[in-house]
User: Fold these one by one.
Assistant:
Number 1:
Amino acid sequence: MPIFEAAQRRLLGVDDRTAAPHKFKGILCVHMPWGEGVLRIIGIRSIPVAVPFHAEERWAYGSRRGLVSVLIEIDTDEGITGLGEAPAYPSAEIVLTALRSIERFAIGEDPFRTERIAKLVDIVGTCHHVGVTSPALAAIDMACWDIVGKACGQPLVNLFGGPLREDVEYLHYIPQGTPAWMGEQAAQGAAAGFESFYAKVGVADPAADVERVAAIREAIGAGPSLRVDANESWSTAAALRVLRALQPYDIEFAEQPVSGQNLAEMARLRARTGVPLLADEASRTRYDQLDVIRQGAADAISVDNVLDGTLLNMKRSAGICEAAGLPVVKQSLGELGVATYAAAHLIAATPGFRHANQSYGPLLSDDVVEGGCLPYRGGRLRVPDRPGIGVRLDRDRLARYAELYQVAGHEYGCTEVANSTPEVPDR
Ligand SMILES: [Mg+2]
């Protein structure tokens, strides 16, 4: 049986021994119980890479000069290979260890059964106790989906609900710096066509944040949206004072201005400020999102398949928030083309993503996918129409950045920023 037809049968749950499918417009139409799988995972390969940024990423309490990701390739017995990516959080070594620890739950499994694999990892593998393993599971999950799409001859957007939008909007990322430098970065983003901007704020002197935001708004003009992210660094009193001063600059969202661990405090701040709040550090999994909603702690919520393990978990998150009447945005720990596009398919097929999403594309000097830097147009990425995630690895680039990781990967981790908040211990 051709693999395409076999994959269609598998997707539709056809038991080859008993099914009596018919074709309608070339598509197999059946209603049959679950059958035998047609694909098996036979191996997982992991490749850590380090890719430099154009400019240092700097936020309230850290900085880094590039990002580290672990690319994975999942091989199947039918010769279809799937691509996945795990941002190296909290480190590449931990992601690689997590992959080695949980690959036994994927080897031998049918890659169509992503829910089963996630349950095996979470429950049998006890990973539901340990969120730090989520990026590794997310990489396996997206590689399985890449295989599913390739086996079906369909871009993932068609398997996630079909396109609601043809492209996905992203933020232009402005790291912390002087007001003049941040204004220059904003002007470059505006010249490149971005319509939504994201600036890192949150420092010891709140007045400096006001100067930074003023410089950015002056550079981009009145039209584009401007989001600020303090990464939990303000006290509630400081957040109230700074957000009041920022109101003239038309802030779209204040992302995680205070600790994400205290939802009651977020709710109190939300009741007293006129700036809409976006929950990020408070919102790692779908269970966190439910708590944010119950506490009335935010006006919008970050969701992420990398932090919650699977693409369908991100779809669930968006559904929970949709039911609560709240929009969602995709957050990012720092992703290259494989993870960015994997999520873009799901974003394009899911209601609720009404605001620009976080990506690291504007910061990255290159990528490991064919074509290098991702082709943002007007701040948007077009959803690939090739089967699966729709990207291919550039082997030369992959080798170059794998070597960079081997010789200098330790230089690409987070470095502490002095004089920042929240308080960090002296070393
Ligand atoms: Mg954030």
Note: The longest helix spans residues 134-152.
Number 2:
Amino acid sequence: MREQEIIDMLARLASGSSPELLAGIGDDCAVISKNDRLSWLVTMDTLIEEVHFDRKWHAAGLLGRKCVAVNISDIAAMGGTPVFVFLSLGLPAGYDPRWLEDFSQGLAAACKEFGCLLAGGDTVRSPGGIVITLTVLGEAASDQVVLRSGARSGDTLWVSGTLGNAAAGLELCRRGRADAPRLRGLVMAHLNPSPRLELGRRLAQAGLAHAMMDLSDGLATDLAHLCVQSGVGVRIDSASLPASSSLREAALLLGSDCLTWMVAGGEDYELAFAAAPDRRQAILTTAAEVGVPVTAVGIFDERPGVRLVRPDQAGIGKIEEDISYEGFDHFS
Ligand SMILES: [Mg+2]
């Protein structure tokens, strides 16, 4: 079963409707009514040793911070503010207490940085590697929560930051090239991602984003979800996708392809959002105020699917291909 089939089965068997559940399975967070003005935002993410992290190159303190950051990124994607964190930690017998202390310091520093409190959790023995599950509760004004389902035909697709850095950084770690000084930014994008909390909040408060999500499984897969939820498709121009100069350098060094990293590489934790074309200037101004670059990379339309327009093999003409779901699938 693919990841989506597993989610669909669980949703069919165990979910239902409740007047308090404003948005359930299928968005970055569940949205639950808190009072007549505010909603709770609830998200959960698991990091598993040798699947999501490798202790050979992932320092414990940075891993502690990353666990918080990737969950905060889902709160950012709804335009919310993080409030409480719950941690479930599975540790193998004979774990290193210094590792645990460094991990805890990183986690605590991230909670402080993002303004949330650890409010509970669980610790268990793991028969294999370390397993870390975090739940984050955030909140937002109910009428400002940005779902994945609001994109309209004619909207512009925007992304924050640059794409593909974390995928390139992971590849540098795996191939033993993580110490190349000029490529350190890519490695840190994998080890220590920065969620776009302030940008998400500002876009939501100003009502600029019709739909929004964070990029965790790669543009091709994440946008396919957003398009299905919104009942639209999107056409992306490869030439407009924002790449850092170090990404190109890493691609040359490793013999890899920048575009594959940008489109299919996961863990960017940038925001992708849909907005009316006439809000372009307001979006650029908001992004400049929070110091995060944003780039218009595509246009939503009524044709289903995520289509990438890129130069053909000869480099003369252009081809358009459907790249829906070609990002990371946890089970394929
Ligand atoms: Mg997400």
Note: The pocket of magnesium ion is lined by residues 28, 74, 77, 213-214, 216 (CB under 6 Å).
